[in-house]
Amino acid sequence: MKHIFSAAFCAVLASHVPAIQAQTTWKLATGYRAESFHTQNIMQFSRDVEQATAGKLVIQVHPNNTLAKLNEVSQAVQQGKAEAGETIMTSMVKEIPLAGADSIPFVVGSYSDAQRLWKLQRPGIEKHFAERGLKLLYAVPWPPQGLHSSKPIRGLADFRGTQMRTYNSTTLRIAEMLGAKPVDVAMVDVGKALSEGRMDNMITSALTGVENKVWGPIKYYYEINAWFPKNVVFVSNKAFEALKPDARSMVLKAAGNAELRGWEASQALATSATEELRANGVKIERIPQDLDLEIKRMGEKFSREWVRSVGNEANDIFVPYYLRP
User: Fold this and answer.
1) How far apart are CA 257 and CA 269, in angstroms?
2) Whether residue 155 is found in the same domain as residue 209
3) Domain count of the chain?
4) 298 belongs to a structural domain
5) What is the rounded end-to-end Cα distance, in angstroms, of the chain?
6) Beta bridge partners of 183
7) Are residues 49 and 83 in the same domain?
8) Which among 35, 98, 142, 149 counts the fewest CB atoms within 10 Å?
9) pTM for the complete prediction?
10) Same domain, yes or no: 68 and 127
11) What digits encode the pLDDT tens for the residues 144-161?
12) Of the candidates 136, 135, 142, which has an alpha carbon nearest to the alpha carbon of residue 38?
């Protein structure tokens, strides 16, 4: 009787081995905090995939640089240290110049503009990803970059002589074109720089303004929507192709839902952050029409220069973008 029970137990155990072996686990690396709305969206994507595949594909999310630093995520996936990853697209500019469309200022003015730009940009990004053994899943923008200022801005003359925070080549160039004095200030030092009077204005999102509690020194916020930087989520093509066709379809469906959900979350967050600035005494205003036109001319100049530097494939983005407003 004892032997019969043991044989039966072994048979049951053996019947479960294929199911255990059939489970696939992906490690997904991201440099952002677990609390970030991007990371929260990825976690929901992970849950959706696990549910859709009945647990056969599990995506383990590793946030906050724990598996790979933000600027090294794409290399980590290409090298097999992780199966999937998320990074800000502009971190890939040296490797994929086309990703730089995200950082060209004063071109997109709304979420609908940003979506249209992404539809034009996506085929080229997918092509470059594929050449590097990567499969693009989805992209989601951060809230748009606005203008924070300690004084009212009515025209270009109001920038001259002011101290403008800069943190990369684009913001440095903007400050110079506006006649402002560039001040290199890391985001963690923004509050201190404002309290010490070392900066008068900066271009960053309302969300960043809220996170740094800029009210007090900052009196005005202008919704200029300077640019919409996007985070991109991708997977090793080798890992993706190793899935069965139905599982691949489920991953892509979940990715599509994550993109839609992420864009909606970004827009909601932009609105709530702007309202929080207002609630803390910051005046929310639109820049005058004349200044808006000047800024748009600057955007056209930036985009022309970018197209010349990137080459013909950049025309596939901006020619149709400007032809259909």
Assistant:
1) 18
2) yes
3) 2
4) yes
5) 81
6) 165
7) yes
8) 35
9) 0.87
10) yes
11) 999 999 999 999 999 999
12) 142
Residue 216, by phi and psi: left (phi above 0), alpha (psi -120 to 50) or beta? left
Structural domain span for residue 167: 145-226+280-323
Q: How far is CA 22 from CA 18, 47, 188, 196, 241, in A?
A: 6, 18, 45, 59, 15
161-199 pLDDT tens trace: 999 999 888 889 899 999 999 999 887 788 899 999 999
- The CATH number of the domain where 236 resides is what? 3.40.190.170
| Structure tokens, 74 | 């794409």
Torsion angle of the four alpha carbons 319, 320, 323, 325, in this order, in degrees rounded to the nearest 10: -120
Residue with tokens 């990369």: 168
Structure tokens at 262: 């992420």
Phi and psi, residue 227, nearest 5°:
-165, 165
Name 166's bridge partners. Answer: 184
Q: In sequence order, which ranges of the chain are alpha helices (DSSP H)?
A: 2-22, 37-52, 73-78, 111-131, 169-178, 190-195, 206-211, 237-241, 245-279, 289-310, 312-323
pLDDT at 325: 58
Q: Identify whether the C-beta of residue 117 lies closer than 8 Å to the C-beta of residue 108.
A: yes
Residue 305 to residue 299: CA distance in whole angstroms: 10
Kindly state the tokens that stand for 181: 């004095």
